[in-house]
Write a structure and sequence with these properties.
The chain has about 600 residues and is α/β, with parallel strands linked by helices. It folds into two domains: about 40-275, no CATH class; about 375-600, P-loop containing nucleotide triphosphate hydrolases (Rossmann fold, 3-Layer(aba) Sandwich). Helices cover about 55% and strands about 10% of the residues. The strands form four sheets. The protein has a six-stranded mixed beta sheet, with helices on both faces. A four-stranded antiparallel beta sheet has the order 6-5-8-9, covered by helices on one side. A two-stranded antiparallel ribbon has the order 1-2. Strand 13 and strand 14 form a beta hairpin.
Length: about 600
């Protein structure tokens, strides 16, 4: 039965009825709760920024006008810190340096050398981007808090550098500027500067939201969470980190340019290391990854110590630390993050064994006519040897895989099966020998380049991302395509999106997570798929569905599949060719019938058909 019949039948039911992943109709009187509250948080954030950005001007309070101009600049900088910290996975403690570069270089060219403000601002932005590049290059080599220490050193050195270069920066005396045209009130007490500074953090929120919802944003988060999975999907983690730093540098550079007319003065003391701490602590206190987090975080971390506790201003660093400690202890996910976590646990539920099944969706795939494996060799290993120190994981292996066949790799634990898949995926390099994919020598290719040859991959431990909805976990397979998708896969994707757009992947069982990873490879439309123990953790019915899927991919869609699996019953049922490995070597290879009679394989059947 085609998927169109299923969808038509579903559409004819009452609106409250939906078809479950297992195919049985279920009654739903209410719509699914949102998996993500990012968009509502953006709107709430815009409202709060508008109130604090325009409100003081409307009531004529000049003190709070100036205060919230600075607050909104810091909110925008914290939004980009949030993006860099969570979406790109980069622990930077030096964002205050980028803001300082934008402000100081603009002040030098505008205040000291008389350049037009827009030209000076462009140069200041260029300086901030150059600073972002300096942070991005170490990010190609070091990660996590090691990168944090590199950027922290820049934050510590920056004010000293400004004082040392007094010939250009005016040293400790700083630089004063006057821009009365930006402070002139237009209407209702609002000045151009007030409007610009209130609108910029709103734009920053939308930029963050738009990136997160885009292919680029998903690629960045996958690269941040699992670089191995990213490379197997054709994503270059280093490039993602580099792009993230440039985006954050541009956004923070704009904040630096706006800082100059807002304060009308820059000095080295204004860009001490504590400024970078403010942005970082604001993200942690407000809630890492939450759109509303930087706003709430800045209100608590900046306004409270600098305004409400102004008499204790010399203890600001201590207050920053105490506030962050208290917030983390009371709200482990940050204030907004803890509320969001409670909302998700309360409203987003799983569906037990029916949470994710592939059998219903196989009907969407029409495919072509049944076909048999051809004689064309699409994967060939010649004398492949992989060592880890003195341990030989893959020992002089020769392997040929025909186009369109299901090729089973079996053997005991430690026999080198996964090590061989990692070599073929580009996740590790051969010490000797070579291998070719689709006639191209791929021995020294990077994993992302091999993935772009049309390779799909699953892992022993499924790479499932709890930050994504179930549908987004699948959609990253579509993102990884290198060509135009087929109509069949398009219909499959539409059905999956309709069913799982608001479902949580965190609630899936281990077996269901494996099926999600399998379906992700299907959506990628890879020509060659490596399955690494995909049946582990599956129930009997799920194993049967998986076997049906593999046969469909091979026979109806012409996919080539290399299957590493311990369930010999499954392998013998679906494989065209079986290769047996032992201690890194290939000891036998042939059809299932030949392997069942081979003495080298007989010992694997002792006590049952599992190896």
């Amino acid at each position: 039965m085609a998927m169109s019949d299923t969808m038509t039948a579903s559409a004819e039911r009452a609106p409250a009825n939906r078809v479950s992943a297992g195919g049985a109709p279920t009654e739903r009187t209410t719509a699914k709760p949102r998996f993500s509250s990012d968009l509502p948080q953006v709107w709430i954030g815009i409202f709060l920024i508008a109130v604090t950005g325009f409100g003081p001007s409307l009531v004529g309070n000049s003190y709070w006008v100036h205060t919230f101009q600075l607050v909104n600049i810091y909110i925008a900088a914290s939004v980009f810190q949030n993006f860099l910290f969570v979406d790109a996975g980069q622990k930077s403690f030096g964002q205050g340096v980028l803001l300082g570069l934008g402000a100081y270089v603009t002040a030098i060219f505008f205040g000291l050398h008389g350049y037009p403000f827009m030209l000076a601002a462009a140069i200041g932005m260029g300086a901030a981007v150059a600073g972002g590049l300096l942070f991005a290059f170490p990010a190609l080599r070091v990660q996590y808090f090691h990168l944090g220490f590199v950027t922290l050193s820049a934050a510590i050195v920056f004010p000293q550098l400004l004082m040392s270069l007094d010939r250009w920066t005016n040293g400790i005396n700083g630089i004063s500027v006057s821009m009365p045209e930006l402070h002139h009130e237009w209407f209702l007490g609002l000045s151009p500067l007030t409007i610009i500074i209130a609108v910029w953090p709103m734009i920053a929120l939308w930029i963050h939201y738009a990136i997160r919802r885009s292919k680029l944003g998903r690629d960045m988060r996958v690269a941040a969470i699992s670089p191995e999975a990213a490379r197997s999907l054709g994503i270059k983690p280093g490039v993602m980190r580099f792009i993230a730093f440039i985006i954050a540098a541009i956004g923070t550079g704009v904040c630096g340019v706006l800082y100059l007319p807002a304060v009308s003065f820059v000095s080295p003391q204004g860009f001490n290391v504590e400024l970078s701490f403010v942005f970082f602590f604001a993200v942690v206190v407000g809630g890492r990854g939450q759109m509303l987090g930087p706003i709430i975080g800045i209100w608590i971390v900046f306004i409270l110590p600098n305004i409400a506790l102004a008499q204790l201003v010399e203890y600001r660093l201590l207050i920053y630390g105490l506030l962050t400690l208290a917030a983390v202890m009371l709200f482990p996910d940050g204030i907004v993050g803890s509320i969001e976590r409670w909302r998700v646990k309360r409203g987003v539920t799983g569906r037990g064994e029916q949470a994710f099944r592939v059998d219903r969706f196989l009907d969407t795939l029409e495919g072509g006519k049944d076909s048999q494996p051809s004689q064309e060799i699409v994967v060939e290993v010649r004398g492949g040897t992989k060592k880890f120190g003195e341990v030989v994981a893959v020992d002089n292996v020769d392997l040929k895989v025909r186009k369109g066949e299901v090729h089973g790799l079996i053997g005991a634990n430690g026999s080198g099966k996964t090590s061989l898949l990692n070599v073929l995926s580009g996740l590790s390099r051969l010490n000797a020998g070579s291998f070719a994919i689709k006639g191209r020598n791929a021995t020294r290719m990077a994993a992302d380049r091999i993935a772009d040859l049309g390779i799909g991959r699953t892992f022993q431990t499924p790479r499932i991302f709890r930050e994504f909805s179930l549908w987004d976990n699948l959609r990253i397979g579509i993102d990884a395509r290198t060509g135009v998708g087929s109509a069949d896969i398009g219909k499959l994707a539409d059905a999956l999106e309709a069913e799982f757009a608001e479902d949580s992947a965190e609630l899936l069982s281990h077996g269901q997570r494996r099926l999600v990873e399998v379906m992700r490879a299907v959506l990628k439309e890879a020509e060659i798929i490596f399955f690494d123990e995909p049946a582990a953790g599956l129930s009997q019915s799920e194993r049967a569905n998986f076997a049906r899927l593999v046969k469909f991919l091979s026979r109806r869609m012409g996919k080539t599949i290399i299957l590493v699996e311990h369930d010999l019953d499954l392998v013998w049922d679906i494989a065209d060719t079986i290769t047996v490995m032992e201690q890194g070597r290939v000891v036998a290879s042939g059809s299932p019938e030949q392997m069942a009679k081979d003495p080298a394989v007989q010992h694997m059947f002792v006590g049952g058909r599992r190896a």
